[in-house]
């Protein structure tokens, strides 16, 4: 289902992947610095989640400014929260690369907001989180991650030039949130692995994201 989400004096293009049965939880998903919501990895994950009973809303927000991307993501969260068509108990924010930075930033901002003490946001999924620029390991983008309290899943390539394995594990050990890292062996930042097809890699990512979501939805119900 295609929708246009009002954002300032513009609209954000978005698509709902809707499961057959009514879903009580959803995932909001966005792309990295390049591309848009039709990036194959996003389409693959959204389709997989919907076919396993989880509503997925993916959206496009062009722009390389992280504050702008965060603002757009926040608008989409509000839109889904107030939606009459899909009444959800909670959502997980997810993104690829820069999109996951924006998602982390939204969660940090909302948790600092005194008015916002509800638990609509259930967790965060970071695919290829860009922890540092290539060859610039001294400057880590870890501020948002360190202040988040909700569960976090990282899916990263062990050969990601923007997320050195040891560095992410170091940041994760300092995080207060419950967290899990799934390493895709020999994958780079774009999740390409020599000798493996894109579909094969995506299957691994999708299955891990879904099982983590299911685990956290069940925990939330207890």
Q: Spans of 5+ residues with little confidence (pLDDT < 50)?
A: none
Overall pLDDT = 93
Sheet with the most strands: spatial strand order: 1-2-4-3-5-6-7-8
Number of domains: 1
Give a written overview of the molecule:
With 222 residues, the chain is of the alpha/beta class. The chain has a single domain (2-220), classed as Alpha/Beta hydrolase fold, catalytic domain (Rossmann fold), CATH 3.40.50. It is 37% helix and 23% strand. It has helices at 40-51, 66-81, 98-112, 143-147, 165-174, 198-221, and strands at residues 2-7, 10-17, 25-30, 55-59, 90-96, 121-127, 152-157, 179-184.
Secondary structure layout plus pairing:
Elements: E1 2-7, E2 10-17, E3 25-30, H1 40-51, E4 55-59, H2 66-81, E5 90-96, H3 98-112, E6 121-127, H4 143-147, E7 152-157, H5 165-174, E8 179-184, H6 198-221
Parallel strand pairs: 3-4, 3-5, 5-6, 6-7, 7-8
Antiparallel strand pairs: 1-2, 2-4
Helix pairs in contact: 1-6, 2-3
Descriptors:
222 residues; NSL3/Tex30; TEX30 protein; eight-stranded mixed β-sheet; 37% helix; alpha/beta; Rossmann fold
Report a brief summary of the structure:
With 222 residues, the protein is of the alpha/beta class.
């Amino acid at each position: 289902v295609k929708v246009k989400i009002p954002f300032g004096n513009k609209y954000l293009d978005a698509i709902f992947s809707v499961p057959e049965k009514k879903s009580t939880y959803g995932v909001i998903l966005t792309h990295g610095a390049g591309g848009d919501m039709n990036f194959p990895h996003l389409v693959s994950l959204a389709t997989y989640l919907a076919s396993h009973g989880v509503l997925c809303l993916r959206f496009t927000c062009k722009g390389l400014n992280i504050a702008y991307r965060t603002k757009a993501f926040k608008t989409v969260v509000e839109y889904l929260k107030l939606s009459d068509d899909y009444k959800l108990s909670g959502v997980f924010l997810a993104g690829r690369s820069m999109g996951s930075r924006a998602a982390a930033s939204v969660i940090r901002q909302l948790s600092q907001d005194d008015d916002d003490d509800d638990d609509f946001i259930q967790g965060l999924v970071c695919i290829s989180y860009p922890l540092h620029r290539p060859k610039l390991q001294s400057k880590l983008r870890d501020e948002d991650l360190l202040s988040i309290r909700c569960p976090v899943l990282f899916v990263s390539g062990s050969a990601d030039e923007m997320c050195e394995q040891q560095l992410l594990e170091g940041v994760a050990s300092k995080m207060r949130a419950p967290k899990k890292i799934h390493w895709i062996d020999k994958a780079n930042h774009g999740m390409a692995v020599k000798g493996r097809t894109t579909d094969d890699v995506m299957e691994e990512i999708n299955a891990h994201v879904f099982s983590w979501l299911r685990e956290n939805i069940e925990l939330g119900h207890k």
